[in-house]
């Protein structure tokens, strides 16, 4: 079931916007694509008894049924692209888009996940040592170590219980040595060039926002 967004010679179901609409202008948004659903005319009827309302004009705001037969030809990749474009256009506060190389690019959804090793989190950068770099407000990282782990951070990289687990590739960062407390975690990216705890040390669990992958590429 879709809603007609605008009137014209061809009515488009607003599951995905058309390219004639305004393009997104923020760097974290994707440009809108032509609708893969095609035009839905008032004389187009569905199979199995479902059909578009014949007695109600197809004006903006009208709820319509999109025949599923028209969707069979959509390639899976195009369907995923449609989902990505739709999500980016929503500006939903629970959806985070990652375009950096330190973690898989894509869309991530806020979730209720425990702060344990392996959990993906958004790390507020306001209280981090930026090491002279321009850092976005939120960093997407993965929790690597939690309370009880002995951590050393120096010019070589990050050591966990005496083992080097994240070498540095840039001559920046703080020095740290200690055992993680209950309100501290170490976060790392998947890229060896990730800006993470190997440079700014352990982070506080306060303010961490767990997320799960929605669509990645």
Can you describe what's shown?
It is a single chain. The chain is mainly beta and 217 residues long. The chain folds into two domains: 1-91, no CATH class; 98-216, Umud Fragment, subunit A, CATH 2.10.109.10. 9% of the residues lie in helices and 27% in strands. It is built from two helices and 13 strands. Strands 3-4-13-5-6-11-12 form a seven-stranded antiparallel β-sheet. Strands 9-8-7-10 form a four-stranded antiparallel β-sheet. Strand 3 (95-98) and strand 4 form a beta hairpin. The longest helix is centred in the middle third of the chain and has 15 residues, at 76-90. The radius of gyration is 24 Å and the shape is elongated. The two termini are 28 Å apart. Residues 3-54 have low confidence and may be disordered.
Q: What is the strand and helix layout of this fold?
A:
Layout (H helix, E strand, L loop, with lengths): L1 E2 L59 E2 L11 H15 L4 E4 L7 E5 L9 E5 L13 E8 L4 E4 L3 E4 L2 E5 L8 E4 L4 E5 L8 H4 L2 E2 L4 E8 L1
Antiparallel strand pairs: 1-2, 3-4, 4-13, 5-6, 5-13, 6-11, 7-8, 7-10, 8-9, 11-12
Taken from the alpha-carbon principal axes, the silhouette is elongated
How far apart are the first and last residues' alpha carbons, in Å? Answer: 28 Å
User: Regions with pLDDT < 50 over 5+ consecutive residues?
Assistant: 3-54
Counting DSSP H or I runs of 4 or more residues, the number of helices is 2
Helix content: under 10%
Keywords:
elongated, mainly beta, 217 residues, disordered N terminus, 7-stranded antiparallel sheet
